[in-house]
Specification:
Layout (H helix, E strand, L loop, with lengths): L1 H10 L15 H6 L8 H16 L5 H12 L2 H6 L3 H13 L1 H47 L9 H10 L2 H17 L14 E2 L2 E2 L2 H19 L13 E6 L2 E13 L2 E7 L4 E5 H10 L2 E3 H4 L1
Antiparallel strand pairs: 1-2, 3-4, 3-7, 4-5, 5-6
Helix pairs in contact: 3-4, 7-9, 9-10
Length: 296
């Protein structure tokens, strides 16, 4: 009830006692608003009329659509039929004389609209590109942050990680593991705000980071996300990938299960990437990747 009172007070604040529109209404206001409608039915009716034109005549030009609307809502044909035949002829001829200028103005408007649409499309593509670049940069930083410790995939591994560091370094290691799961593995959040590592500028405490990473590891081990590397003949193999004429050498660091999908994890100096095993085998056949051991 209190919230409703605040809402309606804000809505009618200018009209209740003390508001700028309260008190005696001047003759100027009365004259200015004399022809104003008491409801918005006419406006809504106009919207409905134009909406019908869009459905039934989608390619109709804007000036023609506006003319249909004004003729209908202003009862123009009834007014025109009330004139004599000579008056009707003069009115129609005068109206037709403005058609070329209206068409020219419409073409000018359409060209301007097309330019604006193209401009906004380019801006949107730039925004998407910048966003993707930012996400890729965050992903690379997340991978670099755990490069010395590797991925913690069990509670025992978490205990070892905690024993390896003290103080702020331990907090940083916990944050790095959580960020890696968020930005590199793209692990779904098992609970709300689990990846929010600060509140109003205040970092999450070490104990809470420990708890969250344990939750992520347990959720991971259910089989819906990444699990430790399985025994596979590809693991440890040296590999070369081609980007056009440029080659980059790396290695197969793991073959892992993510639910029903088997992922091949490849480590290169520039990045660490994962491919579904069937897709990776196709890329091998196409020559995008080469197993260096097979070339010896």
């Amino acid at each position: 009830m209190e919230s409703s009172l605040k809402y309606f007070k804000h809505l009618f604040d200018d009209f209740i006692t003390g508001g700028k529109y309260s008190g005696v209404v001047s003759d100027d206001v009365i004259n200015t608003t004399r022809s104003a409608s008491a409801t918005n039915r006419s406006i809504e009716s106009g919207f409905g009329f134009v909406d019908r034109l869009f459905r039934h005549s989608p390619h109709m030009s804007v000036p023609r659509r506006e003319a249909h609307l004004m003729i209908s809502k202003n009862h123009t044909m009834a007014w025109l039929n009330s004139k004599s035949s000579e008056e009707r002829r003069d009115i129609v001829l005068t109206s037709r004389s403005s058609v070329p200028s209206i068409r020219a103005e419409n073409e000018k408007w359409k060209s301007h609209l097309a330019r604006e649409i193209l401009k906004r499309a380019v801006e949107r593509e730039r925004e998407i590109s910048n966003k993707n670049a930012l996400q890729a940069n965050k992903r690379l930083k997340a991978i670099d942050a755990i490069s010395s410790d590797g991925i913690v995939t069990s509670l025992a591994g978490l205990g070892s990680l905690l024993r390896s560091y003290t103080g702020s370094a331990r907090v940083a290691a916990l944050r790095a593991q959580i960020r890696f799961r968020e930005r590199a593995l793209l692990q779904s959040a098992p609970e709300q705000n689990i990846y929010t590592l600060s509140t109003k500028g205040v970092p999450v405490a070490e104990a809470e980071l420990h708890r969250r990473l344990a939750v992520l590891i347990e959720d991971d081990r259910k089989g819906s996300h990444l699990v430790p590397s399985i025994d596979h003949s590809l693991v440890g193999r040296s590999i070369r990938r081609w980007k056009g004429e440029v080659a980059e050498d790396g290695s197969v660091v793991a073959v892992q299960k993510r639910g029903a999908t088997t992922l091949v994890c490849l480590n290169f100096p520039s990045e660490t990437i994962s491919y579904p095993l069937p897709e990776f085998e196709i890329e091998l056949d196409l020559g995008s990747f080469e197993l260096l051991d097979d070339l010896l």
